[in-house]
Structure formats: structure tokens, C-alpha cells
Amino acid sequence: MNRLTLTACIVPSLLVASARLAAAQASPTAGREAAAAARPGRSPTQPIDEEYTRKIREYTTEPFFLSPLVDYLPASQTVPTPVAVLGDIAGAPTKLPYSHEVYQYLRLLEKATPRVKVFSIGTTEENREMIAVAVASEALMSSLDANREKLAKLADPRTTTDAEAERLQAEAAPIYYITGTIHSPEAGAPTALMELAYRLAVDESPYIQNIRERVITLITPIVEVDGRDRQVDVFRWHLAHPNETWPNLIYWGHYVAHDNNRDAMALTLKLSQNVLNTYVGWKAQVIHDLHESVPYLYDNTIGDGPYNAWIDPLLANEWQLIGWNNVQEMTRMGMPGVFAFGRFDTWSPGYLMFMAATHNGISRLYETFGNGGTAETLERTLSPTETARTWYRQNPPLPKVKWSLRNNNNYEQTGLLVSLSYIANDRRLILQNFYERSKRSVLKARTEGPAAYVFPADTRRPGAQAELLRILQKQHVEISRATAPFTVMLPAKRARPDTSRAAERGGAAPETAARALPDTAARAAADTTKPRTRTFPSGSYVVRMDQPYSRIADALLDHQYWAPDDPQRTPYDDTGWTFPEGFGVEAVRVVDTTVLHVAMEPVRGEVRAPGGVRPSSAAPGPPAAAAAARGGSVVAINHNGDNALGTLRYRLKSADIQAAEEPFEAAGQQFNRGSLLIRNVP
Asked: Which regions of 4-163 does DSSP assign to beta strands (E)?
């Protein structure tokens, strides 16, 4: 079968070449190191595991679905292969391991070699463990804490001078964080990552040694652990009932399915919180999330426009460099169907991998061809759009293919190793850009704006305000609180659009149309075109933009504008998510940099709305009096539009709860219509 296997886009070649040149100029040894590590393939002095290698080739359906990086497995007398737990190799056609089997194997690796260490990073809603596995050389593994301290200084330029940062960039090892199987029917990543950890720990080829000695690889093999175990249950039922239709999972995690990968903004799920805390805690430079869909490997991080408007432009450039390098190197190795670009627009920050993009790192994502939650080998027929030769897919997939889980594992591992090699060869540049993005995030308040967002203390919705601020705290955003009233200048608002009929017909001059408005509306329209000042009370919350993670705060609190005439007519996902509007609270965007000098103090603990029960002996108003007349004391809760009040009915199941039909006054306080009157509180 003839295949075009050496085709590559000229532009990516130039991009990668320029990156290599820049790295070589930055470090005299970089070019030599890159050349030494440029030839993937086994070490001629290290024996291979003959039986494992034979099965790799048996389970791979075409020779061109292999690469020189994965067409063998190095042998070790002391370190077990995945066979020790799986009973077969990674990617075998009848084996999807449960989470406990994946963890068992990775802990066997930890016991067998000092190059591997397993960390528990939290639990799921159903109390299953999540882990992160670090793999690197003995030297790097023995200095994990010291390396983390160096990266922490690069992550917060407020603690670092440029001269010190330059020294740290030469000394520190970058951390590449790989995550797998957030989507449970996309089932291939755990076995691919089991084998990848073994290769990184055992392989003595120059290509792998270069990665191991210069990069710390961090692996969470299963993100959606609850859903993974359910998916394996369903797959095993299918094997036991081969002639029956097997069901899809309704939910993967705890009442969540595909949208568990849309939680990187609100962080409602433990898996999201655990991954973000791991990424930020380790001060990693990359999150690379593994998915399955289109053939054969799609590096969708490059994507199509429009890009998210709040990321640093340096990141967009790195997406191009790393992604097109992937396409070129895997094509060079003879693997068809590797491409980038596509229709993913990289606008929404809701994806798991985008946690890195909004926290000064590099977000990456693969879509590798999969068989929908089964380990079986299947005949697949592709659509014309999937096999079309385009400028960004010069070496397209075959119209028909016999696709195996082993093929999937080959592609995922090859792509990851190519990516890790890129980071290893350009590690100083990667750390330099990491520091620069962190620094630019701190400078953002004065160079890009806004200076801050202010949440007024006199809000009518303190519960919703506190809930939004707690999300920012989960995002590792620093929050301050004003200790005195302060006044800032606010920019002019855009004038109200002209809605008069005369203006619609085009027959009235602007001033005539303005006169057609009611007097109060005309005054309001005129006033909004002028700058104005505003005074905020003491206790107002201030989210400063001169902090390392200012970009995630800005992305969540600002307004999104998807232009109606944008060339991208089919948005991939969310186009707007403005959190203040979603929570129904006010967050004032302040560009006046004097806000950075007002009296404020950092919020140390979790933001909580003020509350409590205030006893009163005063005579109640009519609604409360009517409730009290039925006996016992009455608790009145003012209705201020907080959604959390809706949960009170379910918390106090046996209580007598009524809603006031009219406003009333009691104990010297005015209560709104809809306020709750509660008796018989247990």
C-alpha cells in the first residue's frame, strides 16, 4: 500500500527551524544537544523484551502505525512491564484496566526504580483516589523540592529579579503534566501512559535519556476515575455478552458526563480542583490532556480562530511551534494522519487543559483515533472530510482502516515523546517564556489593563458575591479587601444605541434622534458618554490585576465579544461566560491605576458572606406576626435574590417555611417581598 509519509507543511518547518536557531543562539550547547537527541530509536547496547515487542507488532494493524519510538520495548531485569498487572501488553485487544490496576502497576514501578514516584492528589466525589506520577532521572527525582522552589520563583516575578530568573532558567527542569481519560469512553490513555512511564524510566536510548535528564514528566493516567471504572464494567459486560447491544454510560462521574471537560472555569468537580492544584502546586509549564475522536492524531491546541482574547500572545506562538513540530516529526517517522489546525477555535477557557493557558503555562490537547470505549480491534470507514488532503493535513488518513487500541497507544506515546523531546531540547526557552508570561501577568494592571475589579461591599446579593469570589480563590487568584472607602475614576460608557424609528429609516440626524427620546433617557444617554467617579465603601473586595494569575480573573470577570461577522461561523463551544452576570452580582472593571494604592489587606481565609441570627424582642410586622400567631418564634430571612436560599427548603425539610407576599418591616429592618418566614426549626 503506497503512502505519502514524508510530506510536511513548509511553514511549520520554518517555524521549527527558527525555534531551533533561537535556542542554539541562546545556549551554545543547545544545537549539539538537539542533534544528539534528534534520532529516535532503540539503544544498540540495551536488550529488548522480545515477547513484548512481538506483541506490539502483532496488535498493530499496519507497519506505518508504528514509530521508531514505540516499535520495541526495552528490557529490564528489575523493572516490571505492564504485563505484570495486565497479563498482556498495553493496548491488548481484550484488556481495559480498572483504575486500581493502573495504580497497582505504577506503584510497582515506584518500588522498582528511583526514577518513578507516585503522589496522591485527592479523591473523587465517590472517594476514588487520583494520582500523579513523576518520572525523571535519579538526579532530578532527588531534587524535586529544590526544583519546585526554583520554578516557584519563576512563577511569581514579584519575588525574583530578571538576573536571578536568568540563572534559574538555566538550572531548573521544566515539568510536563500529562492527563488522561477525562472522557470515560475515550479509553486508550491509561494503558498508553502505563507503558510511557516504563519507557521513560527504563529506556537508555539517547532520545529518551535526553528527556529523562532534562524534563520532569508528571502523569495523571485517569482524570475521571469514577467514570473509568464504570466504563470498564460496561466493557467487561460486553465481552461476556458479545451478541447483545451494550449500553452507553449515562453519566461518567457523579452526575456529569462529557461536560466534565467544561469545568475549568467554575471548578465544581473534584477532578478539576485536583488537577489545577497539582498543576499550580508543582509549578508545571504544560498541561497536555489526552482525548479520542478523529483519525489518527489531531493536535487541536493550534486550532482555528478566534483565540481566547485573554491569553498572553506568547502562548499562541508556542502552540504553533510545538504543535507543528509534532506534525513534522511524526510525519517524518512515517505515521499518516497527523495534523493540526482544524475547526477547534480555542476561544473558551472551560477545558481542563486550558488551566495551563490561564495560569501562565502551555495548554495542549490530542484527539487520537479511538473505538468508542472498547479495546477491540474494529474495521472503520472514514468520511470524505476526514480523509481529505488539505493544507494542514498533507498526509491524511486512509478511507478504511482496521483500528486497534494498540494503534491508539502507539500514536499517543509517539506524540508525547516528540513533545517531551521538544521541551527537553528547548527547556531554557520554555522556562524563559514561562517567566515572561508570569511577569507580564503581574505588569498587566499597568500595561494592558484593567487595574482591578471591585466587588462593592454594599451588594444586595452577598451570598452570590461570596460564591463567585470563592471560585476565584479556587483558581489561586489573590483577593484583597478595602479597609477604608475609596474613590476611583471610571471610564465613559458607550452611548446608548439609537432606537428611534426615524433613525432606523435613516431620516434623522443623530441630535434629532436623541431629542426623540424621553427626557430622562436622553439625559442618561448623554451622561454615559462622560468619565465619572465612584466611591466604594470599606469592606469592598478588590481583585488586583498585578498578580501572577490575573489572566484567569480577567477572563472570568470581563465581557466576551464574539464578533457577529467573524469568519468562524460555527463556534466550537461557549462564546460567552461573564461570571458577574451569571451570578447576578456587580464587578466593576477599573482601569484607574490609583486603585492599586488604596488601603486594602489580603483576604487570608475563604470568602464568606456575613450572616447569622439576630434575636429581637420588637413587635414583628404583619407577615411575621401572622406566622408567629401560629405559635413559637419566627426566623425571618430577607429575600435578596441569592440562589442559595432555594436550598434552604431542602435543608430544613420539617420546618414550616412561608414566603412574604409583600414587603414588611420587623426588628428595625426592612424585608423584601419574597422573604422567608420560618417556624419549627429543628
From this structure: 116-123, 129-135
